[in-house]
Amino acid sequence: MKEQILIVEDQFVEAEDLRLLLEQAGYGVTGIARSVLQAQEMIRNKRPDFVLLDIFLKGKQTGIDLAQLLAIDNIPFVYLSANSNEEVLNAAKQTHPYGFIVKPYREKDLLVTLEIARYRRAHSVEAKYYKETELRKLLKAIIGGSGTWAQKLLAVTSALQSYIPFDFLVAGFDNLQQPHFKGLCFLRIGFDEYQVIGAQELCTITGKSIAELVALQGGSSSVQEAVYFDDAAFQHICRQPSLRQLFADTFQLRSNLEMPMRILDRKSFSFCLYSRRPDAYTVEQLELFERIQFSLIQTIEQLLEGEITEQASTQPAGAATIENTHTEAGFEGIVGKSHLLLHVFDHIKQAAPSDTSVLILGESGTGKEMIANCIHNLSARKGKPFVKLNCAALPATLIESELFGHEKGAFTGAHERRIGKFERADKGTIFLDEIGEMPMELQVKLLRVLQEREIERVGGRDTINVDVRFLAATNKNLEKEVAEGRFRLDLYYRLNVFPITLPALRERQEDIPALAYHFMKQYSQKAGKKISGISEQVLLKMMAYHWPGNIRELEHLIERSVLLTKGGTIEEILLPAVEKKEGRAIVEEAALKTIVENERDYILSVLRKCHGRIWGPGAAAEILNINPSTLKSKMKKLGIKKEYIK
Ligand SMILES: Nc1ncnc2c1ncn2[C@@H]1O[C@H](COP(=O)(O)OP(=O)(O)OP(=O)(O)O)[C@@H](O)[C@H]1O
User: Fold this and answer.
1) Pocket test for ligand 1, best of 511, 552, 555, 559 (most atoms within 8 A of CB)
2) pTM higher than 0.90 for the full model?
3) Is 437 in the pocket of ligand 1 (CB under 6 A)?
4) ipTM, 2 decimals?
5) Count of CB atoms within 10 A of residue 290's CB?
6) Which of 537, 553, 586 is the last residue of a domain?
7) Residue 136 counted as domain residue
8) Greatest CA span in the chain, whole angstroms?
9) Rounded to an integer, what distance in angstroms lies between the CA atom of residue 257 and that of residue 154?
């Protein structure tokens, strides 16, 4: 059946052209909406498979407002906009579109983007289905397994983690005074490691009595349906004294998802998840909960039935601290337990088993290559080749023959046939490091391999099928590269199917001591020295440093300190003298703008001063000393719309 597309575009001619183009390409068009309101009505009448969406429309609401509603309804959309400045791109990015096309676009670009969007959509649906089936299987296995109520509840909690992440979870009946089956709290302390906190431990940790906890529970408004509170909403709800507020203060939590369920005799049992990230929860997770709710209810009911029969022999829930023994399987060698790193592990676990392309983002030295290795080792391709190419290290011509190989005589110096990295990576994984440096002319060839999974050697005529998984990494802002025309949008979207962003070391200071000890051990062993400690003063100094070079910089500094240390403890560390300036330099560098951005900002500031007046004495064109029609065309080119001039 034809895929149905809704066009949301306020320019009549553009919208009609688009309709024609889509229909000729075999798509159906459900309608053309000129405003957000009209679009909503059309969607109510006929749900489209995709929405093509302009950003600035008739009426007050923009395409970005509509995108937020589409996300709730789970309708995929692609932006079509004349505006590609970073501000707009960033706002659009927050809505997770399936693509972004800058006008004027070529017909081919639009069709390719739609094709990619369809691919990504199909893939995300498939991945979702796979994940949910896996979760159901896990829950079944827990019911069939052995262990106490607390151990089984921990297993359920741990299974939930890769689907709905949390740093702290409270599971149990809404009444803390239940005679049996008291609620349990689980504090995440490693990838698959939790501290189990029962009511008594909670009293010790928070310094409150059971009676005070019960009173606080009374103060918490109980929710009837699954709901989430993110940053501002969470802060707001935590103003009232409640258990929620107590947990937030005690464990530094910033968002919350509550999942209440009715089980046995309509008693209310809930899973309350908390995260240290302000934006951890989304509508998608609420929907996931809806879909798995039945399996969760069944699991809890069956666990409780087992608990009743074994009641006499079980130890009181929450009286012990249980540590899950499956710690960090597959992440060996990666040091750190900060919640930001654990969040990266969650993403790796999700992405690794499928064949999805993964784009690893992060500053230089944050461990991108390590993560790529880890994804390969956790995938079914483990044991098959893992082939790496650094796109920044070679000129375009050499990258081409490195990647695709060449035939004998393909160019001067090609004395014999050479097998390229794609062929060597067959059945395995290819890791394209520094993908942001890939020359434009090669980007299109790479796109073809991603789409067709076939290559041609340089100077060759035959096409060769390759079965490779793509991992790519960059420390560049690829969206900015796209906006400035240095990176192909279609390639970006193909690679960006599953992005994983690594935090900078300065964002996870709590990992610094563990990393420092790890490198101390490694390098003292290498140097044949018996160094077993790092002074507190050195640790404090390291925690206060900005680490522009991240873990690699830390590694090199520890290596040097080990060589310079005479005794058994590292007492001194030579941090770069420019450390303070470095921080500023980074900020300044980030603030550096291109000539085009500066021109846009300047024109905007003049327009604002003139309250948007272009023509006439004292108006923007006169101040800028250019012709009003030149100014108008510049505004169009730079994506400056009236809406910006306030
Ligand atoms: N979490 C970690 N635990 C232990 N070692 C780490 C960790 N992260 C990174 N490293 C080490 O830090 C160094 C830099 O890591 P890696 O080369 O993977 O970074 P990168 O982000 O790929 O750098 P670049 O952007 O320069 O390519 C390596 O020696 C790696 O082993």
Assistant:
1) 552
2) no
3) no
4) 0.97
5) 12
6) 586
7) no
8) 91
9) 18
